[in-house]
Amino acid sequence: MSKLFVRLPNHIGDACMSMPALDLLEASGFDLCLVGKPFVGELFEGTLRRFDPIEGNLLEDIRRIKELAASVKNPKGLLLPNSLGSALLFTAAGIKCTGYATDGRSILLEHAIPKPSRMHEVERFWNVAYKALEAWGVKPAYDKLPKRLNMKLAQRNEAGARNLISKISLPEKFAILAPIAKGRHEGKEKYWKHFNELVAPLKERGLTPVVFPAKDEIDAVKLAAPDAIIYEPTSLGNFAALCSRASIVIANDSGVSHIASAVHAPQITIVGVTDADRTSPWSDLNMIVGKKGQWPEVNEVISAIDQVLSKTKS
After folding, report:
1. pLDDT for 160-187, tens place per residue?
2. 25 Cβ partners below 8 Å, 6+ apart?
3. Contact call for residues 253 and 271 (beta carbons, < 8 A)
4. Which of 63, 69, 68, 90 has its CA nearest to residue 79?
5. Which helix (H) or strand (E) holds 54?
6. Tally: H helices and E strands in the chain
7. Which residues, in sequence order, are bridge partners of residue 185?
8. For 196-249, what is each residue's pLDDT tens digit?
9. Chain-centre distance for alpha carbon 304
């Protein structure tokens, strides 16, 4: 199999949404060498694909990726981010790269793929992978984009989740809440402020509401959902395995919502400022509540919980 260097997206949600594109590239005959931010690597550990982190020091990152590329004859790469910086990294490392013609980087690309019209991010990543295969003269292994993501959990993460569940005596039926979404979208906060009002209704439905916050979210979570059981942070891979065992995952449109979709967890995604047409979780087990410019009422989310739980029982 020919080696292909792939620069992964920078954010957890985007990395999850790139999974179908990566599967297509692999199925079409490439041995993937993934390059990306350190924290996204664990999402792909179960695939056994090589992963090399970029640490943020450009010269050091170039040196390491150049050494890696030197072991391959005529190395080629695919850029999933739109940035000029991602093209500079691969080009300086001696990798001929292909990607969307964005951010003024076309001159650095071996094949500049035209920027597509508006579409979901999963479709966008899939499209650039498909078009890249055609540009390289490689027949894509299949033409139809899967309707689900397919995250392969590493055995150590599945074991880690089992051990953690035993250690903290987590009940069999639990709901994972993710009340915090970092950053802003178009200058507005990205998180719904009524997660704590879901705790009592979830308990009434026989579910234990729990939160596994990121290390830098602990204080914010305690304010946002004080009545839920808040556990110590765990690794991203262990968290994904916990989501796969949850009765339901309730999150903002954030990295957590995409992890839940990647492991096929029943889920509710609460939106109010983001564009669900472009960034909603790619899953038929997902229910969106709210819309851009209008956060949902608490009773709307509770109604969605009942609908999702009813579907999973049937």
Report:
1. 999 999 999 999 999 999 999 877 677 7
2. 4, 6, 32, 78, 129, 132, 133
3. yes
4. 90
5. none
6. 12, 14
7. 188
8. 999 999 999 999 999 999 999 999 999 999 999 999 999 999 999 999 999 999
9. 23
Question: Listing from the earlier edge strand, what are the strands of the sheet with 174-178?
Answer: 229-230, 208-211, 174-178, 248-252, 267-270, 286-289
> Which residue is listed with tokens 């599967």?
23
User: Residue 144: is it exposed, middle or buried by C-beta count within 10 angstroms (0-12/13-18/19+)?
Assistant: exposed
Cβ atoms 8, 35 nearer than 8 A: yes
The residues pairing with 189 across neighbouring beta strands, listed in sequence order, are: 184
The position carrying tokens 């020091």 is 57
Going by their DSSP bridges, the two strands 109-113 and 96-100 should be labelled as: parallel
Give strand pairing partners of 253: none
- Paired strand residues for 144: none
State the pTM of this model.
0.94
Do residues 164 and 238 make contact, with C-beta atoms less than 8 angstroms apart?
A: yes
Angle between helices 121-135 and 19-27 (to 10 degrees): 20
β 208-211/229-230 pair status: parallel
CA 288 to chain centre: 17
**Measured distance CA(254)–CA(280) in Å, rounded:** 9
What residues does 289 pair with on adjacent strands? 270
Q: How far is Cα 58 from Cα 86, in angstroms, rounded to an integer?
A: 10
How is residue 257 written in tokens?
């919502």
DSSP assignments along 5-50, one per residue: EEE--SSHHHHHHTHHHHHHHHHTTEEEEEEE-GGGGGGGGGGT-E
93 SS3 class: coil
Whole-number Å distance between alpha carbons of 272 and 101: 31
Instruction: Give 63's strand partners.
Output: none
Neighbours of 167 (CB within 10 A): 9
Residue 242: name the closest of 162, 154, 146, 150 by CA: 162
